[in-house]
Specification:
Pfam families: 7tm_1. The longest helix is centred in the last third of the chain and has 41 residues. The radius of gyration is 24 Å and the shape is globular. Helices cover about 70% and strands about 0% of the residues. The chain is mainly α. It has a domain of about 210 residues: Rhopdopsin 7-helix transmembrane proteins (Up-down Bundle).
């Protein structure tokens, strides 16, 4: 008959080296699972809509939308792969073995990192479009964007491999008992590469865009008595630029709100258990950015709403639907 001590172990047959179960109230567990399921499902559906829209309609095959497509793919994988597997990490015991544990973290690093870098690339794209519009078409081409997207993913594959090298060489070396899923990375390096540099880049680009938008708005007001045709053209340009600046502002604010709590705790050196409620909240707050990205980047564009209507009404199944004229105006 199983003793009470054995019942509290993840692997009763490994009496001396097995981890102990860390049970939580059933109501708390159910709340966590429901939230994970809802966020994961929304992330998959919203990003899948973005992927289908941009991939199907030829009018949407622009450099900016290629970046949106790459971002949607990475965020889609976060919802499809990273979030569901995170449930196993918050369970009392990890049952899939040490190698699967390290591989999960490896792919999670690649996917989430690519999502952040894609957001940086979109900020660069908007910066050039607003601050140097005359040379945008020559600087930002589809070929260059494809290369940048490819390099983005390759970079984070190598980065994840390097930062997890010791863990990949000997899976489970940092586990204190059998049934844990623990890795060790150089925290300072990861914080700089995954948070400080991307955030700094985005903030600097946004501030530059904001300064340009404000200066042009002032110029517009100072020349209010100019020729009507000139004024009307100026107003159109300035409204577009100000709207792009506001959109970038929302992007920066949401990104910081999602990622700052997690990295601030990591930077402070606080020791939080992987399965603790605090860590679960911080991790999924960061992952929720992948759910909000399609809302910020795509729902703000009229072409997305029009494309979704064609998708949900199955009109994309009609012949030549890929040539439908989808407006690109913001």
């Amino acid at each position: 008959m199983e003793t009470q001590e054995e019942a509290e172990l993840c692997f009763p047959q490994l009496l001396n080296i097995s981890c102990k179960k860390n049970t939580r109230p059933q109501s708390e567990s159910m709340l966590i699972y429901v939230l994970i399921f809802v966020i994961s499902l929304l992330t998959v559906i919203l990003n899948l809509l973005v992927i289908v829209c941009i991939s199907h309609f030829r009018k949407l095959h622009t450099p900016t939308n290629l970046l949106l497509l790459s971002l949607a793919v990475s965020d889609f994988l976060v919802g499809l792969f990273v979030m569901p597997f995170q449930i196993l990490l918050i369970e009392p015991c990890w049952l899939l073995g040490d190698l699967v544990c390290v591989l999960f973290y490896f792919f999670a690093f690649v996917i989430t990192g690519a999502s952040v870098v894609n957001m940086v690339q979109i900020s660069v794209d908007r910066y050039v479009a607003i601050c140097d519009p005359l040379h945008y078409s020559t600087k930002i081409t589809q070929k260059r964007v494809r290369i940048c997207v490819l390099l983005c993913w390759i970079y984070y594959v190598f980065y994840s491999f390097i930062i997890l090298t010791e863990n990949l060489k000997r899976p489970g070396r940092y586990n204190s008992c059998y049934g844990e899923c623990v890795i060790n990375v150089i925290g300072a390096v990861d914080i700089v590469m995954s948070f400080i540099l991307p955030v700094s880049t985005i903030v600097i680009l946004y501030l530059r865009v904001f300064v340009v938008a404000v200066s042009q708005a002032r110029a517009m007001r100072s020349h209010i008595t100019a020729v009507k045709l000139q004024s009307s053209v100026t107003v159109t340009v300035k409204k577009s630029e100000l709207k792009a600046a506001r959109t970038l502002g929302v992007v920066v604010a949401v990104f910081l709100m999602c990622y700052c709590p997690y990295y601030c705790v990591s930077f402070s050196g606080s020791d939080i258990m992987v399965s603790s409620s605090t860590n679960i909240f911080l991790v999924f707050l960061a992952y929720s950015n992948s759910c909000l990205n399609p809302v910020i980047y795509a729902f703000f564009y009229p072409w997305f709403r029009k494309s979704v209507k064609l998708i949900v009404t199955f009109k994309i199944l009609q012949p030549q639907s890929c040539d439908t004229n989808i407006s690109e105006k913001m």
